[in-house]
Amino acid sequence: MTSFTVTADDMDAIALGGAFLGTGGGGDPYIGKLMAKQVIAQHGPVKVITADELDDDALCIPVCMMGAPTVMVEKLPNGNEAREALAQLEAFLGRKADALICIEAGGLNSTIPYAVAAATGLPLIDGDGMGRAFPELQMVTMTIHGVSATPMVLADDKGNSSVINAISNKWTERLARCQTVEMGGAALVALYPMSGAEMKRGILHGSMSLIKAIGEIMTSERKAIRNPAEALMKRLDGKRLFTGRVVDIDRRTVGGFARGKAEFKGMDEDEGRSFTVEFQNEFLICRSEADELLAVTPDLICALDADGGMPVTTEQLRYGLAVTAIGLACDPQWWTPEGLELVGPRYFGYEHDYAPLHQMSR
């Protein structure tokens, strides 16, 4: 891996790649792309560096959106919240950040760090904390490695902000979620302040370059009038779960999360079959009509519009939409007992033990 520079023009591919890896969550990629493009055009390109380029005693801080993605579609950020959260966390720590980190691979949360990096002149680390998107803030590999989520700052679009110190990352999630709900269902946050040494141990390396590469594949395939599903499965060693049309969608915002279930009627080679996908901000479990498990968290369930080949987020699901669902293996850190305790199916209330994607029948 080598460092690279991101311009405003690169944000189209990055938004696509982040939305695909985001497993339906992470926020609307279009909003984040516009924010990042505007700030990069104003302040200049962003340098993405490898973890090894940073000193062990450097200060690294992730910035992201917290809340229900469906809320952010209707309640647009004003563009200053993430920078304000970062500035207040720096003031609390009494030290300026040396680099920023992307907390997750997701639509909005893959692009917000670029906007903040451009505005502040800080480099962005080529890595993230999930390799996909998850709904709760303790669900990052930094938790596995003992990095504290606090002190954490939340900022909203009205100018409110707060600092949280908590006894655990799970308690940070609980306290921050309550405040996020009161802030209108979504907030911009700075959290998990860590040293360069902690960052090198705790993150998943290469995420930003992978997101960009995925977006470039999607752009190239679409220009060639090909659905990018096959090219993506080949590049990522993925597995087609099904192709189907949405026939029913149950979606609601509960406790700061977008929760629900989508039912699909099979198309093409899946004609005559039916499938369900359940989500909590992100797609978490996929089953066939016989309750056969096809994919389950922490492995990735990624959705593409079967007609246009664009990533589909949970808030974009609607009756009649044709979708190709693709399964990808998660990072091996999530296969550990500590990883599965954080993001395995039983944490989300599913009566399944984790089964790796490659062991599923299809």
Automatic annotation (TrEMBL):
SUPFAM superfamilies: CV3147-like. Residues 168-357 form the S-Me-THD-like C-terminal domain. Residues 10-165 form the S-Me-THD N-terminal domain. InterPro entries: S-Me-THD-like_C, S-Me-THD_C_sf, S-Me-THD_N, S-Me-THD_N_sf. It comes from the Bacteria. This is DUF917 domain-containing protein. It comes from Allomesorhizobium camelthorni. The lineage of its organism: Bacteria, Pseudomonadati, Pseudomonadota, Alphaproteobacteria, Hyphomicrobiales.
